[in-house]
Structure formats: C-alpha cells, structure tokens
Amino acid sequence: MGNDSTVTEFILLGFPDVLSIQVTLFCTFFVFYVLTLIGNVLIIVVTSAGTELRTPMYFFLSNLSFLEILYTSVTIPKMLLNFLLKNSSISFNACLAQMYFFIALGSIECTLLAVMAFDRYVAICNPLHYITVMDTSTCVLLVCSSWISGFLNSMVHTVCIFHLTFCSSNSINQFFCDIPPLLKLACGSTLLNEIVLFVVGGAYGLGSFLLTLISYIHIISTILKIKSKEGQRKAFSTCASHLIVVTLFFLTSFSAYLKPTSKNLLEEEKLVPVFYAVITPTLNPIIYTLRNKEFKRAFMKNVGLRYLRF
Predict the structure, then answer these.
(1) What is the pLDDT of residues 97-139, one digit of tens each?
(2) Which one is the CATH code of 9-308: 2.60.120.200, 1.10.645.10, 1.20.1070.10, 1.10.1060.10?
(3) How far is C-alpha 233 from the chain's CA centre?
C-alpha cells in the first residue's frame, strides 16, 4: 500500500449496536434517502419537461438536485447495507474513495450555492442586464467551474490523507469515511493535514460563503429600497428558499470541519454530519418547491396532468 499503513480496512462504528435502534435507524435513513431521490428527480424532470422553467435559476437548481442525488448516494447506501448485513467494514481504498467523492461533491455544493446567490443578485439588483449577464455560456461555465474546483479541492485532501500512517485502531467513530474521524486514527503527526484542512478547505468553503454573503447583502439592500411592500415581498420570495438552504448547509458544514481536531469525538458531534449529509439534501427539494407557485404550475402542466389523463 502506497502509504506504508498496516491497516487494510476500517470499521465504521456509526451508531449504537442495539437491534431496536438499528432497525429504527435503517427505516429512518431509508425513508430520507428515498425522499431525497424522489424530490430531486422530480425537480430535474419538471425543469426539463417544459419551457416555463428554462431560466438560469432553474438550470442551477436542476444541477443542485443532480448533485444531491450523487452526494447522498456516496454514503447512505453503504450505511443501509451495514445495517442489514451487520458488517460495517470498508477497505482502505474504498474508504478513501468514499471520502474523496463526499468531499468533492460537498465542495461543489458550496460553490454552486454561491453561484446561485450571484444569479439572484443579478436578477434583483441588475434586472435590466440579467439576460445578457446570465446567458447560456456563462451559466454552463459557472457550473463547470464549480465541478472542476470541487474535485480538485477534494484531491488535495485525499492525497494528504493517503500519506498518513494508520497502525493501531481501525475503528472510525462515524457512519462514513470523512477527514476529521480519519485524522483521529492516524499514528503520526496530522499537523500538515490540519493546516491543509484549515487553509485550503477553509479558503474554499469560506470563499464560497463570503461570495454568497456579499450577494445577499446587496440583495437585501436593494429589496429594502423598494417602496412597495408587495414589491419587497415578491423580490424576497425569489431568494428566500435559497437563503434557507445556504444557512442550513454552511452552518452544519463549518461546525464539522473548521475546528481543531480532537482525539475524542463527542457523541453529539457524530450527529452533525447527519444534518448536512442526510437531512439537508432531503429538505432542499421541499424548501425550493413548497412555496414556489411557478414550479407547481410547471409540474401540473408538464407532469401532473399527463398522469391524471390516464
């Protein structure tokens, strides 16, 4: 093995090994996963079915939905399989692969959320230039840049983890392979890894967050200048859903990664990844579509009525 490690596989401890709890957790996570797939596939189908939603906002939203499907599929199926087979082992290479794709897809989501905030900024603050600024080529370029930068960011962290030595415990106190729990198992110094995590990962995550924050500062400032209360309400309704998603994602992600690594993992810390890896991807389709009249109309016209006819 390339990193001279004596550990060939890891054990994902995850959650308490009590039968009643395991059954409850399996059913719960299975339901969350199915809802995530249904909700995000529905968004992709509806945004692609008709011409009503062929706008930059829904182009980015469909990309986010596709991303969420991949994001949850990296961790949840393996976790469900562990519940069924009572075998929570994962090979060293499979663990690194899972971590690589999880970090990559999470990084892409950071950037994509910032891109979506920029889209709302142009739409609300510079509406007359919206069509020219957010044209098709610009939208495709922004999405491609998000994916490429996300995979490159994850590559840096994965290479650093690969060169660590794991020679004692192989029990990961989490339900999937991630940077913080793996650093806790390393035998040697993890100082370089922590520096890379804070500098590279922090710059990537905080950079996306700051771009999002700046966009919303301008958005809110512009909305407050609108004299009509109805005008303010309509303007805010176009970005309220995205603001909720951004808040949920960045708060839970930062609490997991941007803090010093401790050898002891508190039980409540194990719950944090559940929010950004399981719950948030399930809530996103609900948040984006529940109060979206435009999406509901497109659904009924292009999807709902077709099935009602049969």
Answers:
(1) 999 999 999 999 999 999 999 999 999 899 889 999 999 999 9
(2) 1.20.1070.10
(3) 28
